[in-house]
């Protein structure tokens, strides 16, 4: 059949006919040797539906849904229904719709990279980065099946399990997971890498990993790329470190504020800080200059007291006693200076 199709394509000399063979299914021979493609109605409807979506406003992306079980797919689509539409179709149908919408085939080929089973997503409420973030939330693990390749090193950690004594101990050991009975429970004796990245997972190992709650095969709606405003965004350019980005913005904002304050750039954001800084500097100058007013008096007294205590702390006891004696003598002299006038008055009497 395939060879016959190639012969028909060579005879007609039209590449588009070959493309539509995949769309329409079987070919039929018309009168006069004409070859007419017999279209499947549902395929035409799907192409028209896709072309209408691709011709509208908003963002368009391609998602790889390979490996996603039907049940999981329904749940994912249900959770995203309010934010985007998802249309599953073969690559051939998507190409035809893309062509009808007047979009660049080169852009489509870029979006198809990495999409084994493509699905068209469309949203008028999200931008490319928001679309990527929402689709990333659908990532989840599932049980490994016979022959599937490990996406990363699969490690079983040391520690107790929820299983009681029984044949399961031997089942764990049979697949390379060292287990024993410890305090009435099955425990993993040591941390072990049971499968290295890229190696095939056996069926028995997948079952035992599932019993431990290890689901190594990641599934989800994986965005391979999106087109917004005429620009193609590969998925790699849409993955942002939001926490790091937030920290960078905070650091930049703080640096800009400090620079504005240091250069005395007046704005609604910097005026309160600049006034506070000016007030503090004016107070410091007044204290150093010994300017006494209602605001500085208490600070000057406190500073004088602190300095006096500091000096007193550096003197020995004899010096302090001498200071006390000098103070006492000074007091006696003051008293004696006031006494003579009283004696003279007595002599006169």
Automatic annotation (TrEMBL):
One function term, GO molecular function aspect: structural constituent of ribosome
Cellular component terms per the entry's GO annotation: cytosolic large ribosomal subunit
Low complexity composition bias: residue spans: 323-339
Domain (Large ribosomal subunit protein uL10-like insertion): residue spans on this chain: 144-214
Compositionally biased spans, kind Acidic residues: 340-349
Keywords: Ribonucleoprotein, Ribosomal protein, RNA-binding, rRNA-binding
Subunit structure: Part of the 50S ribosomal subunit. Forms part of the ribosomal stalk which helps the ribosome interact with GTP-bound translation factors. Forms a heptameric L10(L12)2(L12)2(L12)2 complex, where L10 forms an elongated spine to which the L12 dimers bind in a sequential fashion.
Record-stated family: Belongs to the universal ribosomal protein uL10 family.
Protein name: Large ribosomal subunit protein uL10
Protein source organism: Candidatus Thalassarchaeum betae
Name of the gene this protein is made from: rplJ
